[in-house]
């Protein structure tokens, strides 16, 4: 077995380039196995980077209330894990999300009715669709632009929603 140089306390980690830093990381065996399994065909280090970047992006790109909502939906999905395979489970999961959204609804009434809100929801849903499938990135960009146009038009009319 070749000898490796052991890092000393306080020493700078080795760098492969100005953009990368090599680190040593101690993980519980169970977590290591889960990461290897999640990596599948990808390299282990690439999977760890991907997961870290996704977690940090989520933490820094949304407000606290949105993160709480996403965490709540994820917790419900873990309990109803067959929601995407079973029509009954899907229906239960959809209603659970609806109940959660009603609980989180801000006080007051909406300026628009359900029919008009449905029209505004379509471009926003398009942004969501693009997040579901990486092969829809062009569709997602168009949907995001449509949503921004809707918001700008509403603001231009002095309306606060959406």
Order of helices and strands: HHHHHH
Q: In this structure, how is the largest beta sheet organized?
A: none
Gyration radius (Cα, Å) is 22 Å
Distance between the termini: 63 Å
Coarse shape? extended
Low-confidence stretches: none
Portion of residues in helices? 55-70%
β-strand amount: under 5%
State the secondary-structure class: mainly alpha
Total domains:
3
Helical run tally = 6
Chain-averaged pLDDT? 80
Strand tally is 0
Describe the protein's architecture and organization.
By secondary structure, this protein is mainly alpha-helical. It has three domains: 29-61; 63-108; 112-162. Helices cover 63% and strands 0% of the residues. The protein is built from six helices and no strands. α1 packs across α2. It starts with 28 loop residues before the first helix and ends in a 6-residue tail after the last helix.
Tag the structure with descriptive keywords.
single chain, 162 residues, 3 domains, 6 helices, 63% helix
Fold topology:
Blueprint: H1 29-39, H2 44-61, H3 64-79, H4 87-104, H5 114-132, H6 137-156
Question: Quick recap of the structure?
Answer:
The chain has 162 residues and is mainly alpha-helical.
């Amino acid at each position: 077995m070749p000898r490796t140089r052991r890092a000393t306390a306080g020493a700078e980690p080795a760098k492969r380039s100005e953009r990368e830093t090599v680190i040593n990381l101690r993980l519980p065996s169970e977590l290591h196995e889960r990461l290897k399994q999640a990596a599948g065909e990808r390299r282990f280090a690439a999977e760890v980077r991907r997961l870290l970047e996704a977690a940090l992006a989520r933490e820094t790109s949304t407000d606290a209330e949105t993160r709480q909502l996403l965490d709540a939906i994820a917790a419900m999905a873990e309990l109803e894990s067959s929601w995407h395979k079973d029509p009954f489970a899907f229906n239960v999961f959809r209603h659970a999300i609806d109940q959660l959204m009603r609980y989180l609804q801000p006080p007051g009434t909406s300026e628009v009715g359900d029919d008009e809100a449905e029209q505004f929801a379509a471009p926003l849903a398009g942004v969501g669709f693009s997040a579901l499938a990486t092969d829809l990135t062009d569709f997602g960009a168009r949907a995001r632009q449509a949503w921004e146009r809707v918001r700008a038009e509403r603001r231009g009319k002095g309306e606060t929603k959406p």
